[in-house]
Amino acid sequence: ASLRTPKVETFDTRALQQLDSAHFLHPFTDHAALRDKGARVIVRGQGVYLWDSDGHQIIDGMSGLWCVNAGYGRTSISEAVYRQMETLPFYNSFFNTTNVPAVRLAAELVALAPPQFSHVFFTGSGSEANDTVVRMVRRYWDILGQPERQVIISRRNAYHGSTMAGASLGGMPGMHAQGGLPIPGIRHIGQPNYLEAGQGMSENAFGLVAAGWLEEEILAVGPDKVAAFIGEPVQGAGGVVIPPATYWPEVQRICDKYDILLIADEVICGFGRLGTWFGCELMGFKPDLISFAKGVTSGYVPLGGVLIGKRVAHALLEKGGDFNHGFTYSGHPVACAAALENLRILVDERLVEKVALDTGPHLKAAFNELATHPLVGHAESCGMVAGLNLVRVKGASMHECVPFERALQVGMLCRGHMFELGVIMRAVGDRMIVAPPLVMTRAEIDEMAARIWDCLDLTLEDVRSRGWL
Ligand code: PMP
Questions:
Q1: Which of 382, 381, 401 minimizes the C-alpha distance to 390?
Q2: Is 267 near ligand 1, meaning CB less than 6 Å away?
Q3: pTM, whole model, 2 decimals?
Q4: CATH number given to 76-348
Q5: What is the pLDDT of residues 432-453, one digit of tens each?
Q6: 293 lines ligand 1 (CB under 6 A)
Q7: For domain 13-73+350-465, is the CATH number 3.90.1150.10?
């Protein structure tokens, strides 16, 4: 009964779905399949909960799309946005002008970032941030008189956005197959996925092996042609791939050895997701550039950007002249006002520390409990991201579990039940993942985990009745 709450406003769901499928082309969606089902219409959010147009309450295990870190319904953010819109809704920062929220936000971000950062370039999204990174690192080597350093090394199964450069940096074969990608000068190495590639090794030994793939690629390309390496501290859309503790420090050592720029894509990990302000702090490396978006405004208004370390900033600012790059919405005053208020919330409510010391460990305990379910091979978490693998046969270790055949799409079956039972979890193949708002309390984590357990039970029934076990 608690899944239904009184409707504040009445919606004609069917009519909205028909209009939706008639006119709205959704991102990453098979429209023929969506037309038959009809999209779920989300109408309201409060805290960690959403409501759909039929009045169902849903616990949002994905923070929207990894972004609503401060939770829904923060009136102080809407008020900050309203005030800024009344004062100055827009002005550009191209022609020797600036605006108050953008200046304050740049200073605030530099204060929150690790000590090597001094400047910020603003964009409208994470994809634009990574496009900026590609142009910026190539420009950097240009300024330093090494224009042949063009190649950027990334990883298979990485996600860095959907623009031409973002999708090229990303390592998703389905994306490369459409639109003539990747662009020239992007190379991909294996991801530090212990489950997939670490059999027979300790996790820490595997971390060194996986980092070693970077050195092999640098030597194959030629060190004097490599501009940078980019990676997400914890890969998000690829299925919450948490690297062994040895991985990033070794990547750092290799980049230093060949004088290669190191870039952290913190679009997901930034702003507290892992229990530190930036994921690189937890993973033990010092990037030259950080791309960010999502959690900087908790998604209330679109905003992204690149934090620029002193090494790159010095070249760009002191020796570079014009950097011929920028967006109409670089430093948008309304987006920056939203970000300032969002960061104030994260600081004043000590949400990052809370993730590190309280809710993150509680989420880990909840996922360890879910790992005892007969359908779950293993589970892991890091701060407020977690994942579990659905398997046909449980084994004594993660490498001894027997997976389902991919084509059965057991993950999608499970995700279907999540929708029915009012919890949002994402399926990446047969890996089920969550990244809840940082405000989620212990009690709400327990409630989410209970709903997930019920979904696992329903999925197990399906799998049995279809004879897949
Ligand atoms: N980088 C990472 C790590 C991401 O997860 C995403 C979005 N999921 C992006 C970049 C792209 O950000 P946007 O969708 O804002 O362009």
A1: 401
A2: yes
A3: 0.97
A4: 3.40.640.10
A5: 999 999 999 999 999 999 999 9
A6: yes
A7: yes
